[in-house]
Design goal:
Elements (H helix, E strand, L loop, with lengths): L5 E6 L9 H5 L5 E5 L8 E5 L10 H5 L5 E6 L7
Antiparallel strand pairs: 1-4, 2-3
The structure holds iron/sulfur cluster (2 copies).
One iron/sulfur cluster binds next to helix 1.
């Protein structure tokens, strides 16, 4: 089992422009640009697609020029997934 505590990036889709900087700096490649929601169309926003693979390094939050990523402590890696 993974460690029970870490921080995960919470991306604010209202602030994210889809510029892709966070995707570029994420070493384990767990961020990607994806269309939000079920409709299958619309602007792409940064998405954490593999919470287990995220190391919690916070580079994405530091790199985001639009202050769209907040690191949020979670007690279990799979909480809310
Ligand atoms: S760096 Fe910020 S604005 Fe750019 S895609 Fe990532 S979350 Fe969105
Ligand atoms: S905290 Fe680090 S590992 Fe996790 S999504 Fe951001 S850049 Fe990637």
């Amino acid at each position: 089992m993974h460690t029970a505590r870490k921080a995960l990036p919470a991306i604010d889709p209202g602030r994210c422009t889809g510029c892709g900087w966070c995707v570029a700096v994420c070493a384990p490649h767990v961020l990607s640009l994806q269309v939000q929601g079920e409709s299958g169309w619309g602007p792409k926003r940064s998405t954490l697609h593999d919470a287990d693979g995220c190391t919690g390094c916070a580079l994405c939050a530091l790199r985001c020029p639009f202050d769209a990523i907040r690191m949020v402590r979670v007690s279990k890696p799979k909480a809310g997934a």
